[in-house]
# Entry
Amino acid sequence: MMSGSEVWLTIIGLTAVTVVTRNTFLVLGHRVTLPERVQHALRYAPACALVALIVPEVVLQSGALSVGLGNPKLVASVVAVATLLLTRRAVAAIGLGMLGFTLVRLL
Amino acid sequence: MTGRSVFGTDPTVAAVRREAFMRGARATAPALVATSIWGLVTGVAMIKTGLTTAQALAMTLFVYAGSAQMAALPLIAADAPVWVVLLTALVVNLRFILFSATLWPYFGRMPLFRRLGLGYITADISLAIFMTRYGNAPVDQRGNTEQVWYLLGSSGATWLSWQPASILGILLAGLIPGHWGLEFAAILALIAITVPMFQGRPAVAGCVTAGAVAVLAAAMPLKLGLLLAVLAGMAVAMAADALVERSTGGTAT
# Structure
């Protein structure tokens, strides 16, 4: 665990990271013109970024690929995605997902 | 309406702003419960990592970037050098640079401080919701009052569902046993936010690619695999877009 002052330094640094990344082009945009194609491609960025954050958390167990019924996170995620596609209800998806996660872990 | 309000003193302008703000907030409503759960779990995780209440409150209120916070916590626990934590968070947050490029054609001409404020509070969900609504807005209408306040409504609703939940998580963390596996609820919440973005075959193709590359490149240092995955996903989505346009006889070349 970091010392208290290191944690505070990290929090200040992380705040700077948020401010800088969320504003990079909003502040510097007039120096660069993005081609229409690039602007179009950027529309796919949010979904791709979120999927890239989620999938490794679900299918990797301590660095190794785990894609079977024995992986509670995978079973729960499949339940959640199916619930979302069928009902479009986020709360039901998270609730059923956690239920699936707990059941597979207990069995 | 009399007196000052956040929407301004001019009744006509205030009505336009209020209406757009409420529309933005309503469009975001389906994602708000998931955002709250994600915020709650992040709050709990900060305390479980060993942060003090003051540190955790400062982190949620100022950093306001859940995925970067979650990436930073194990490194803080492992006593990693501060610069390694910051560099990792930077890579996780690189997608925001792409988002800011998306927002530039709309809000690039606003006064600097308003631009900074708008950029700071706009995260994944609001950007996706804004682009779903105004992605095809005519160039001469980009960044008008309606669009500014629509984005503010979406970002404001997200902020209001994240912060109280995160603070609640910080305060209640001591009461939640570790073996419940509550951290995983954060992933399910992210899934609930992401699935509605799977609209159209190019988006799905891009997302499948991004997921596969993220797994293959997971061992890369500083979470660089994430960046690689996003770029690969965007490239495949664009290629799929071109295929769809050709098969439907679209106008684009």
Chain B is about 75% helix and 0% strand.
